[in-house]
Design brief:
By secondary structure, the protein is of the alpha+beta class. The chain is about 35% helix and about 40% strand. It starts with a strand and ends with a helix.
Length: about 100
């Protein structure tokens, strides 16, 4: 199993994305977080929905995931936030070492 992972989180706006980003970086739960504006299409409570969101791409370690998820859940305004962990199977050795060194 990989020691590194990418966590995807969608936020309703830039302010909430910035708040979550700051908290994760200050607590050393993430090494790098990228923001991307996206259009989301989904079914929620039996209704077809479409919304503009901010997607966070969070680079972290598997060791940090449980605390990272708890921090996001505490700060996120959605009842059921998207928090998806994807393993990083391979990557540039120097970059992965930086991720490891940047997280607690």
């Amino acid at each position: 199993m990989s020691d590194y992972c990418l966590v995807m989180v969608s936020c309703p706006n830039k302010d909430e994305a910035a708040q979550i980003t700051a908290a994760l970086l200050q607590q050393k739960l993430a090494a790098c977080i990228q923001h991307q504006t996206i259009d989301s299409h989904y079914v929620w409570q039996d209704k077809l929905e479409q919304s503009s969101e901010i997607l966070l791409l969070i680079k972290t370690t598997r060791q940090c995931y449980t605390e990272l998820e708890a921090c996001i859940s505490k700060l996120h305004s959605y009842d059921t936030p998207e928090i998806i962990q994807l393993p990083i199977e391979k990557g540039h050795a120097g970059y992965l070492q930086w991720v490891k060194d940047s997280c607690y």
